[in-house]
Amino acid sequence: MRIKAILICIVFLFVWTITIPGVKADVENGWYITGISYDGPIIAQTDTVFYVGVVEAKVKNGEMGELESATAVTDAQVTAVFTKGQEKIEATLIHEQNGEYKGVVALPTAGEWIVKIKAVRGHSEQRQVNPTDQKYEAEFTTPLKAKDPENNWMPVYLFILVFVVAGILMLMWVRKRNP
């Protein structure tokens, strides 16, 4: 009986994997920014290190379709523009490794900022820009929140407060047990 149940489960899983089609996304040939990450929390008036990934996508047939491969881009010029109202901070990123670019920014004020990342093919002075270079450009926009520098110590204060309260409660408990 037990073997029958196991065989039925295996057959069910086999049929299930055959009948459910794989998910396919249509992409175009060209560059894509995979995202942005930060070394730690973003605190106003403090240098923040951030990283951006850039890949080149190739499709199986033609200009658009199922993804065949994605390779790291190592020769891009990557810039980031941080905006909040009228404030604008620009940063140029440098290639670190395997399509990962590193930048540093110090946002002057706390609050909601918008960051726009742009990666373009590096052009020499002699080389003319041509229409196919649009494949070698990528943009990515996302919001981020910078914290006030003063709020950085709040978790430390709360941690100390918990220990002080625990110490007081322990003293009260010891005195109550030993009159």
From TrEMBL:
Transmembrane segments: 154-174
Protein name per Swiss-Prot or TrEMBL: YtkA-like domain-containing protein
Domain YtkA-like intervals: 68-117
Organism: Brevibacillus gelatini
Top-level taxon of origin: Bacteria
Keywords of this entry: Membrane, Transmembrane, Transmembrane helix
